[in-house]
Model the fold of this input.
Amino acid sequence: MSETPLVQLEHVVKRFPVGSTTLRRGPAEEVHAVEDVNLEVGRGETLGIVGETGCGKSTLARCLCRLYDLTSGRVVFDGHDISTLSRRQLRPFRSEMQMIFQDPYNSLNPRRRVGSIIGDPFAIQGGDEGERKRKVQELMELVGLNPEHYNRFPAEFSGGQRQRIGVARALALRPKLVICDEPVSALDVSIQAQIINLLADLQAELQLTYVFIAHDLSVVRHVSDRIAVMYAGKIVELAETEELFASPRHPYTNALLSAIPEVDEIEDRGERILLHGDVPSPIHPPSGCRFHPRCPKARAHCEEAEPPFEADGHGRLVACHYPVEPGELLRTREAAAG
Amino acid sequence: MARRARDAVTALLDVRDLTVSFPTADGIVQAVRGVSFSVDAGRTLGIVGESGSGKSVATQTIVGLTQGAETSGQAFFNGRDMLAMSPEELRRIRGPEIALIFQDPLSALHPHYRVGKQIVEAIRTHENVSARAARERVIELLRVVGIPSPERRVDDFPHQFSGGMRQRAMIAMALALNPKLLIADEPTTALDVTVQAQIIDLMKSVQSDFGTAIIMITHDLGVLADMADEVMVMYAGETMERGDRPTVYRRPHHPYTNGLLEALPSRRHGKKTRLTPIPGLPPSLIRPPSGCPFHPRCRHAFTPCSRDEPPLGPVDDEPGHLSACWLRDEERQAS
Done:
């Protein structure tokens, strides 16, 4: 690992315009998908991003690899500012950052043979046919597919095998960064474990850096070195995985972690913190701290002032005016009121 | 129909030796192959299995939702065999007696009708009440399931509800006729963990208030850990293991159950340790493996496994704990 992080995000903002059409004029509204995110991804690490549907985790990942243009802010990849590069200028960086998607059924073209799907990146980069086939078969072997299945169609593979095809395609050009967006959510438990192990092996073998997005917190916990918790477009807490699970400091992290269904009976498991209400509207996010309408610890100040995302004195980054102290028991609103 | 066994007296739903198969162009898909289970009033049975294990088909067949399937076996609901009923009789049972909730609440609600109207319609189909009275009841139901300001939201369209609210509305609809049995097929799979926790909490409180029996179908052992009294593990259309939840989770007998538990990332594993996947793939249901359907993927498999099908039999002296495996305990521990 060298000193500089592989990716640095500085004040990244992504907004999508909505509701304004040529027929219905008026002040265009915007979905505030990602708001002022600062984040670093170290070389060789796995950074997990967790949060509920619509919290902006996938948007953030797509900004990170410039699949989306930023509304404002900076993305520095491997020492280069890529935030405003054109498509053509981005091309040399494309081979260094790849994505693995959730749905192995929709992310592979059903009419193309596996060999050509995995071989596409080589075709774009040039090289002769025989050489390409050899490389593709090497990749297939690397991800645990039978190289003889080079000429098969995606439909002839199971869900887990298709995800392996997606992994092989992502690895074709030896990227530095792989963004895994819910890579195992569509798979059965027994197959999910195969893919997680595969990703771990490949990381060790090829010194990959992962950004790992998943809604299954047990999976994220298992694979990640550090975890960023997102809520309504913002990172509310960032910590080493074990520290985060041992003592979450943001009340939202607390609630999120307490909701994980666990197979094991655990004695130290605290009371489940049930959140009330829904995730706030991304078009009109709440004032102050975005979590305040649902937060069991919210006070008047939270409604007025946005908490800074800063070190909390315990070596953690947390955006909260009144972070949860280790050992503190959070109570749900009703319990607190009653 | 001869009714033996004492549980027939008490069990609300008693399914015996259910088989379901679908003729297709490629051959006969044997989706469910001889499955028996029962659930009592006020109790929760969890059915867990991976895609294609037959867990959904089994319950849908009982309530008559698998058109074109060939079925055999019996399913006694309150002593009457539902598999022998006419579609008309089944229609009278679905809703007032047995309610269903599905995974995707958006496709289960009609997008063109207001949420309240759809629940009103469900009530008035089965009960002779005025539209106004039914509407009042719907508002009350929406309040029970935790929809904020229900008197206003009752006139919303489904797209105006969030995913969690839609599932709450589905639960409200399911409860509208005060059913004795609620079949929930992956009700929280499409939802975030926080919302999932809310919905499970709601189902548990409904059960304790109304004494509803629940069959919870899921692929997620974690979800069942929070609510099931009894667990049935299905694989390739058959029951691999059945027993009360703590027993099955703490002392799984069948290698498949054990494999499922070990494949889950959880606190037992340290960070970044290797998970233990189950090798291979689930079998074809057109040509299921001989003997034990799990033997091609089982690391304990020995000669009889591929030859003879193990019966679902009692495990040691644990009452109610059944497992379909040839392994004896010594062999299991030795390996």
